[in-house]
Write a structure and sequence with these properties.
homotetramer; five-stranded antiparallel beta sheet; Chorismate synthase, AroC fold; alpha+beta
Chain lengths: ~350, ~350, ~350, ~350
């Protein structure tokens, strides 16, 4: 495996769903930056399960401990180690299905690659590892805060219910992080139906990063959009990523898609704030396709580890739609990549 | 900048549009692999400009030279250096617009980041750098060939004209690499219109990798889809990337999206051949959103390097739609990432 | 900072002398390798302070906890996180000298680089961080164990007292890890004198790695000796590293220094087991120059953080000679580098 | 193999002794730095063979070509590709010994690792690859020049003839780069004897880097001395590296070895300008053990690729002592590492 990301803002995560805990080391953070534990805890709380009936009922306080790298509310320049201990890991829930590959899950591939019997809760492949991403993202946000960079993600659509209008403040208070107050009730209704039918559903989330200065990104391979695509696609549920007009650009003409440049900035933002792999100073705008969570109670055909067919039904504490809980994770990955891009760009300061 | 990609299959590219030449060093290739110059040249010829009226009329033979790393048709294990000299670089074409930021191009961002006057033809940001990717991709394909891994890309849509059916052999012979013989003429017609109007248009291409063994990809950050997303998004014209059902998954239910597992394999391929960031043995299937080429002769508003508004019209030798020429580049990036993932996975062979 | 080492066998360490604890994440370990906590604890015990009067009297049990990556005595392939909590961190000892740069220590440089007030016990620059290296080294040794690779370090000299003969078993039982039973008493005597005079003294340690297969090392920059030199020179007290004949080679002739090759192996080992940066199958033999520990109670001139001269005397719990405690650390770094080189060489297995 | 070095100042070298040429890509160089071809050529000329009877008689002009990354005497920020074509590669010289492993050379290890028949002149393992290092070093020196950092290497000893006094200007003009005018004639005399006897001899060189600002180096693994040790040990002939007092520190007491700090700087430089892995502002001083060149005409026992014993005598154009030609290479590696350390430290500029 490789749970290491970043060139200068370097993160290394660890932890399995039903092990002792999960955590992260953040290395490369400059010294003297304001950082306290409440700032990190606040971000973790935004990702926490058990907060509404539309997300997993696993009960975790997800209390973070800082083991190193911070003293007196300031970073030391040394590696920052953060740990969260698992509390409510019910391995029992998995005993009856431990011999089956769950469809849509990583089980089959982990078995093929690592040659091990299946781990309870998916082990390392569980969404629980995203907790470490959010913790690291809180540190990245602390680096970006003095630059006034603000990153927010919200739910644009679930199934066929799609936002027409975006109100980020509303999204922050809504249990599904729905961006549009007009459609929020319909979205809740749909999700209630899905939950009761034992099924799950996909959606689209959007990430917006405001006030990113022009100049971040290192062509030709560490372009800002390439780095962001990698960071975001590494989130389990993400099956597609697009910037600005994205797939709509495939139907546009150059005369329509090109963002005209004026003395006061760009007249449109089809590029999503990135041109030639470098931030252009406009809002960075990203959409992510989120797949329906694969854990459903509706019976599905699969095979066991001997290769024989069986039907399986997954009961347990699962999210019927993961969009709202992916939002803080997507923000975190965006912050982590921007922090790295920002530090990488400092080399140009020698000029 | 950072023109270095890969952890074990490592590539480093160089070259500007109107400089001496472009090239690549491939390091980490195992010794004893069959590789000859004709194999590499063949791939470069698939990307070459000037081959039809629907692509750039720049005349380049793009003849590759191997400077190191190969002897007697076998790799030595040492770095393989490949160079292609530029022949038909008409800097004159750019003199009249050297003070203007071309809308939709990287000019503005390069100026902000590197603080330099604009380079003819976009310098390093030119699509000409993709030549080095294709050369490196040919070497990656040579590593994957004994595994029977076959990678092919083709045009799925241009504007509103979209393939219903995929015939890879037809695509290989068609000037637009159109996947569907039924719509190929309509696609040509549309492109003729676009070309004559001085405009450009976007499209979607698909990349398919067959026979990839299960087990490639290194969670949680170097997941196979994350690495592919980075490699593919680093191609200039790409604005979106999706795997399998991709953005369609956002409207699907779990019971529909999950690929059922049978003793004979998966019953569907909504995952696009990757689960939990690891290849599952099924065809890896990727769609890319290609933006309309920004160089158009229709006049557009922009600013000059002093920040004052001007109108500009870009005449020169440009591609009205870049999809067909991106295909070999997308194949190359896919091959490069798969080669790296394959070598990374060798560590598990110690078990 | 950058507390990350390794390309495939990747370690990331954290922790300050007087913080909550120190630890390491080891990523890239293949799955299915035998590993239990007792194996790791045993190595930590070999490095522990407070075990004799010739080493620091700091009392630490250094009990390791495994947070992830291991189940049922086997590695999972996922990151292995190890944590040791600090117990006996007496920050009080440092209060009276917190405004002074200790000569021979990193204080001055940390102040210049990180701009922070001095951390108690040196913070991140303390030798306590080597605990994380030893923990990671234990994991590396577990990877190398099935290959019969054995790594041992011992004290070759302290001051002018130098071993003539090497008995590794004796060294393992001797409190100073003295390699030669004949001189062990003299070494102890010298160290007693040094300790009582409030001074410290340097020495030379040797690391030997037996049964390393031919072929490890990746020229031209990740040569095995280059990687080992980096790993070993990154240990605080090391001021020189040499392989085989080392600096003696500077006075030798080629006819004398070249190791003749016979059908049964090399006739001598002036190369120290590495030729052209690649292991040749012979014992890898390395000598390290260890500087006298800078913390001495004899008064020394220095400056305070305002830049004014002061005399300082360092009282506390320090090692008069660090050689014996560097031995397990040097073994660990050797094991970590060999583990990485071994995994890197697996790519050649595709041939 | 891995011919890639550096995190921000990234170099990738290529080329075999008897191939088309050797070269390097330097990536990560900031834009707007003064750099012209004469500056690079001058450094290559300092390394060139055939300049006196005490070095290899291979006749090479070693003329460098810049393929990219520079325009109008300034760096563009894009990768800088430099190529030197081989002219005088007489593969014929090696035909008669192509089946034999040369003692002290990498032949045996390359055969074991890469499984290939031996390449003429050692192929990639030849000292000719150091040409690419010197070219990259010239670019690194261009980055360091505005900071007034000056790096020079000279010969401290050959065999038993050792400099007492160092005159860097004299060394620059002397064919052996002997540091001490008083012993220069004796050194020449010794080398004449060695050359005529068909043997070779080792020596020690010193590298001094002046005006390096305090603060370079990234603990705990990318310490400045660790990075320098790796870069320098990766040079083929180097068998030992020490900083400041180095191995002499092993016999010193703390009271003697600690460099006292005064308001005007350090009173001595036993540390060699590096404390805790970070530059302290004093001169960085490094000594390197250089082994006798293994190519000697005196007959030596070895084995052939079938494993049977044979005697061999190496005639050709070899250096009886490589010290003088290693000097520019050691300077280059020092410059490359310092350039990287300097760029890495820029991240602290955000504070």
């Amino acid at each position: 495996m490789s749970s290491r990301l970043g060139q200068l803002f370097q993160i290394s995560t660890f932890g399995e769903s039903h092990g002792i805990g999960v955590g992260v080391i953040i290395d490369g953070m400059p010294s003297g930056i304001d950082l306290d534990i409440a700032w990190i805890q606040k971000e973790l709380d935004r990702r926490r399960p058990g907060t509404s009936k539309w997300v997993s009922q696993r009960q975790e306080t997800d209390t973070v401990e800082i083991l190193s790298g911070v003293a007196n509310g300031k970073t030391l320049g040394s590696p920052i180690a953060l740990v969260v201990r698992n509390k409510d890991a019910r391995s029992k829930d998995y005993e009856s299905i431990a011999h089956l590959f769950r469809p849509g899950h990583a089980d089959y591939c982990y078995f093929k690659k690592y040659g091990l019997t299946l781990q309870p809760g998916g082990g390392r492949s569980s969404g629980r590892e995203t907790l470490a991403r959010v913790a690291a993202g809180a540190v990245a946000k602390a680096l970006l805060a003095p630059l006034n960079i603000v990153i927010q993600a919200y739910t644009l659509s679930i199934g066929d219910i799609r936002a027409e209008y975006i109100d980020p403040d509303f999204a922050e208070t809504h249990p599904l992080r729905c961006a549009d107050p007009e459609i929020a009730d319909k979205m809740v209704e749909l999700l209630d139906d899905i939950r009761q039918s034992g099924d799950s559903i996909g959606g689209i989330i959007q990430v917006a990063a405001e006030n990113v200065p022009a100049g971040l990104g290192e062509p030709v391979f560490n372009k800002l959009d390439a780095m962001l695509a990698m960071g975001l696609m590494s989130i389990g549920a993400v099956k597609g990523v697009e910037f600005g007009a994205g797939f709509k650009a495939a139907q546009m003409r150059g005369s329509e898609h090109n963002d005209s440049i004026t003395p006061h900035g760009f007249e449109s933002n089809n590029s999503g704030g990135i041109l030639g792999g470098i931030s252009n100073g406009d809002t960075i705008s990203i959409q992510l396709a989120i797949k329906p969570t694969p854990s459903i109670s509706i019976p599905q055909p699969t095979i066991n580890i001997e290769g024989n067919p069986e039907m399986m039904s997954i009961n347990g504490r699962h999210d019927p739609c993961i969009c709202s809980r992916i939002c803080p994770v997507a923000e975190a990955m965006t912050a982590i990549v921007l922090a790295d891009a920002f530090l990488l760009n400092q080399r140009q300061s020698v000029r």
